[in-house]
Design goal:
Elements lengths: L1 H23 L8 H13 L3 H19 L5 H27 L2 H10 L12 H23 L2 H14 L4 H4 L1 H26 L6 H17 L8 H6 L5 H5 L1 H23 L7 H16 L5 H16 L2
Helix pairs in contact: 2-4, 3-4, 3-9, 3-15, 4-6, 4-7, 4-9, 6-7, 7-9, 9-10, 10-13, 10-15, 13-14, 13-15, 14-15
């Protein structure tokens, strides 16, 4: 019965992928050309909104609320849009650099066929030109104007190491480390945009929390590879689920998620009530991951721990 249920779930997943791919391949005449191209840019980044954009903006928002002397709605609405624009444009740079390479196209054709290149909305050659002549220069100018050129440069280097130098395929330890430092750089960059615009600076506590979040990500990010095992295997990538097996990764990640949910509030010395949300949600996620009911652990843990940032008054 369980095998039949798993088979049905896999078939349903394949049908959804096929449907998304067919929708992404709709002819350009069905849309005005500006909307079609904007949608193409959106599809490059779609799968990373929950893993990068939303956690990054949550971190920047909580840091702003905790550090600003008198945060107001007006101040927050003038700070956050710039941080969101920087986060998304830098993510777009990373995603195009990743998705244009042959082995990633092969992987996406199996795991995410709705992405622009496997869906034939744009060619790999045109993607390279888009990246070289528009996305990188414009994102660099935006970073310079917002005072976060160093963070942009760091992310450009990490992108180069991950994609062009083959860091993603070098081994699970290199892959996890690059994912962690890249996401921490996103956090630092978005928070710095908010701080620069408000005439403040990132505090030592904020930097310390960025490091803690990096450790959380480095030790739990492997859970997002569980859903990409077919494509990763086809691309010759050695992710943790492929090296150690799905069962080991689920149990190990569940233990780590539960542990971090206790450790993170303890780092900030919150009172008893401060443990309720992180521990409760953390252990719920741990059970879901162990049972194979969800793969959203990394971003959910980051979201929960971002709440601790505000509660701790970082």
């Amino acid at each position: 019965m369980e095998k039949e249920t798993e088979k049905e779930q896999k078939e349903e997943k394949k049908k959804k992928k096929k449907l998304h791919s067919e929708q992404a391949k709709k002819p350009t005449q069905h849309h005005p050309w500006p909307l079609f191209h904007l949608q193409t840019l959106y599809l490059f980044t779609l799968s990373d909104f929950k893993t990068v954009v939303f956690p990054t903006m949550t971190f920047a928002l909580c840091s702003s609320l905790a550090s600003a002397p008198n945060p107001t709605l007006f101040i927050l609405t003038t700070r956050l849009p710039s941080a969101a624009l920087w986060t998304w444009s830098t993510l777009l740079m990373e995603n195009i650099a990743n998705q244009r390479l042959p082995h990633y196209i092969l992987e996406d054709s199996l795991n995410k066929p709705w992405r622009p290149i496997p869906a034939q909305r744009i060619s790999p050659q045109l993607s390279r030109c888009l990246l070289l002549y528009l996305v990188v220069p414009l994102t660099g100018l935006l970073s310079w104007s917002l005072g976060v050129l160093r963070q942009f440069a760091a992310l450009a280097v990490f992108t180069w190491m991950y994609n062009d130098l083959g860091g993603s395929s070098e081994g699970w330890h290199v892959r996890n480390a690059l994912n962690a430092v890249a996401l921490c750089t996103f956090f630092a960059g978005a928070t710095a945009v908010v701080a620069v615009e408000s005439g403040e600076e990132m505090t030592e506590q904020t930097w310390r929390w960025v490091v803690v979040i990096g450790c959380v990500i480095a030790t739990t990010v492997q859970v997002q590879d569980l859903g990409d095992m077919e494509g990763d295997a086809a691309a010759g990538r050695r992710t943790m689920p492929l090296v150690f097996g799905e069962t080991v990764i689920r149990w190990g990640t569940a233990v780590l998620v539960g542990a971090w949910s206790v450790v993170c509030p303890g780092i900030w010395g919150v009172d008893g009530m401060g443990y309720v949300t992180p521990v409760g949600v953390g252990w719920l996620l741990a059970v879901r991951v162990e049972c194979g009911c969800g793969q959203a652990v990394v971003e959910a843990v980051v979201w929960v721990d971002d709440g601790v940032v505000h509660a701790a008054g970082v």
